[in-house]
Design brief:
Length: about 200
């Protein structure tokens, strides 16, 4: 499976309008695209930022949808944004649980070079996922990776903001996992907390 991630920066006070247009005008034709497998919009209304994440059954389907995606963004969504967004392409390296049903999402950058990727994935799946599945409020997780660029994004989905942020406290699961995976990172990680405003 593959993913397109589009970082967005909305103009102040236009995030609600952006989400309304996405749901009513962008999403209906998107779900009819060959190979479409799901869509998410993550948003932080305090700073007007977020991400559009679409999932595709194959790399070919992702590539085939690219032009329509760019046209839809330019024609319908750009008026709500401060700048033209730059899409990012990823392979879905790990998928566990489900993203539908999670009301909140934590996104972290995972800058792992291709040479380290499989070793990092083994640690992630064998040491991280069993513990993560036991966390209160956990719904699912996606690890998106771009092998060529050595970049990635990790998304985890939660039923409440408190449960999501509790996992990030000192000595809880995320600090322990990041410490364990740090040997594979080529740069410091960055994280953010978001509401899941659209999910399908």
């Amino acid at each position: 499976m593959y993913a397109r991630v589009i970082p967005i920066q909305c103009r102040p006070d236009l995030l609600t309008d952006f989400l309304s247009v996405y749901r009513s005008a962008v999403l209906p034709p998107l779900v009819r695209e060959p190979g479409f497998h799901g869509a998410l919009v993550l948003s932080d209304p305090e700073v007007h930022t977020g991400f559009i994440v679409t999932l595709w059954n194959s790399e070919a389907a992702l590539a085939q949808s690219e032009m329509k995606s760019r046209k839809a963004v330019a024609a319908m969504l750009l008026p709500f944004l401060t700048a033209h967004p730059q899409p990012e392409r990823y392979e879905v390296l790990v998928r566990a649980g489900q993203h539908v049903g999670g009301l909140f999402a934590r996104m972290i950058t995972l800058p792992v070079p291709e040479a380290q990727l499989e070793s990092a994935r083994t640690v992630y799946e064998q040491e991280y996922l069993p513990v993560l599945r036991q966390q209160p409020g956990f719904q699912g997780v996606l690890w998106l990776a771009n092998r060529a660029h050595g970049s990635g994004r990790g998304l985890s989905f939660w039923t409440s903001r408190d449960q999501m942020q509790a996992a990030d406290r000192e000595n809880e699961i995320f600090p322990r996992v990041l410490s364990r995976l740090a040997e594979y990172f080529s740069a410091p990680t960055e994280r953010g907390y978001y509401a899941v405003s659209v999910q399908i």
